[in-house]
Amino acid sequence: MGRHILVTGGAGFIGSHLTKALLKSQQKVIVLDNFNDFYDPEIKRGNIKAITTKMAELGIPEDHFQIVEGDIRNTEQMDKLFASFSIQLVVHLAAMAGVRPSISVPLLYNDVNINGTLNLLELCRKYGVKKFVFASSSSVYGNNKKVPFSETDFVDHPVSPYAATKRAGELLCHTYHHLYGMDIACLRFFTVYGPGQRPDLAIHKFTKLIINDEEVPFYGDGTTERDYTYIEDIIDGVLRAIQWVENGQGSYEIFNLGESRTVNLKEMVTTLEKEIGKKAKLKVLPMQPGDVQRTYADITKAQKILGYQPTTAFEDGIKQFIQWYKEVNNIALINV
Question: pTM for the whole thing?
């Protein structure tokens, strides 16, 4: 049967892209996902279908891929999974995502993101799995005044429950590294976008609204900045982190994975308008609780240790995203 990489949340946006990349490099992958209704579960099922289609195209054996529908909080179910397969490494992407929704249902975010992560770490200890990659978030930096954000910055002032749960996950990872010598990389993702992006995220949501001539919610004065990172650059970073973890001798590190360039809200909307060929109807609203003024990654550490080097400029990434959006929605767009 061979050894497998377990990708939790593997049917999601980042997870499905990662799974394709791992399968392409001849790895055996188990995708674990609970297909919850945070957004339309059919999108995730479509992602799984795309994975199996790609496998057939590339002639990848069917036994290289397993899909398990389950919840990381379900100890009994997860124990059965670890007992059934020889897992060599866990890439833990599964989480309740998003800053704003976490303010409405903090207990759910705590349960999934903290208890679920602890459950996985404990199973890794029990089954002797020593390699673990944890998906953290740039949101842990809160309203950090110093830019760009560095892994050595103080991050104990989160401004949303989501951010607090991601920081807690990093700390739990450190505990298991310290106690059991596990090799762990915690990856702080900075606003990931590109083909397949979740529909609740700004670029996807704004694109849909602009195309349909609907109002676009525009929070604040347009000066908030995000370090948008293209999906292929993120996947390259994750693959490098996996390699680093597999070559490790009981190491623990946190890495920023970003583009290391900021784009403000006004510029983001203008770039979308230009690529779509339509003006946005903006509905100006006050800043939302839990939102931060900016995210901006210092990627020096990831460059030095992982050899990470993002290559996709924001304008090019948007072009590719719009192209994908057009194809999946059968829309003929006029570029101006």
Answer: 0.96
